Input
Amino acid sequence: METIYDQGKKAFLIKDGDDELASVPFPFSDKDHLGQDLQMADAADYLFYTYYKKDVRELDYCKANVNTGIGGGAPQRVGWMIPLSVLTTEDPAIQGEQHMNQYAFYAYCHLLGKEEIMAQLVDDNELGDILERLYLDGCLLIICNARMPANVTVKHLELSLARNGYFSTSTGYCNPQISSNQELNLIPASEILKPDGTYVHDYIEDFLQHHVYDANSFIRFLYLYQIEEVLMDMEMVELLKDYLYLLEHNQPNYRKAESAFKDATELKRLEHVVENARLNSGMATELDRKCNAFLNSDPNSLLEQPESIYQVRNHIVHRFRKASGDEPAVKEICDSLELYLYDLLICYKLPKVNRPNP
Output
């Protein structure tokens, strides 16, 4: 079987030789912005990635931009994020959306090339029903190869996509603090990824795949806080390597090393992580407010990040008998902490080292 596009019928046809097995009408314009016919062959110039966002609406289609340069830089359009439900829309306003129709056309080319979808269409199933069954809450991120900035891959954008509620696996959850925007502005992560495209610690991948949400807010908090634990551990590992190098290659000063380790508390290491990232997250103020309210902090000595979340962790772990009575507040903290952590991971810089590079 193969799929072709019939310009006269304005439909995709699934054929077996000369036999037409199924016909799928294309509800959008099949012309580009210059009035030229769209061609299936041009879909090879695009990349297609499936993402899921809980309760995504067909109106949530948007341009996808990548922020490049220092501090994010000016957004550069690389493609579109299209809810799969919009591909079979009957809304004439959406059908007439210029530029998006081109990406919808290539989405059809991509999807109707899948054997599972083709087989169900041949069995007289409607495309909209098929997509709902196979990709509930699904979206297609469609990227034009030529527009993608150099040395940026979709893996670099994964944390920023999560920051906007899009995940490569269905989580059945979307952070209520995320709002739908007309454009999807993505910031590439850099040093949290190794050169091979994997995260510097396996837990980050594990979190995104399995632990983004838990109905129990205390369990969810612990999963979230493990990200900070991971980053603090990495700081300690590099600190140990530094002092081993100094002791092996310089005149040993054991007292100085012992004193440094005493000063390398969890909070100090966490402060180093945040300071090194030069984090300027819009969630920090909101997160501090929620943390201080939960801790019933003295109004004259309110805590700030990262100490505020560190003290929330201490309160939950060491005084759970008291903390357990205020789960709604912990849920609110988790909602802000999740977004704050995405910001931190995107801006993350590897620990500074005081030894020659290998």
In short: Residues 217-249 form the longest helix (33 residues).
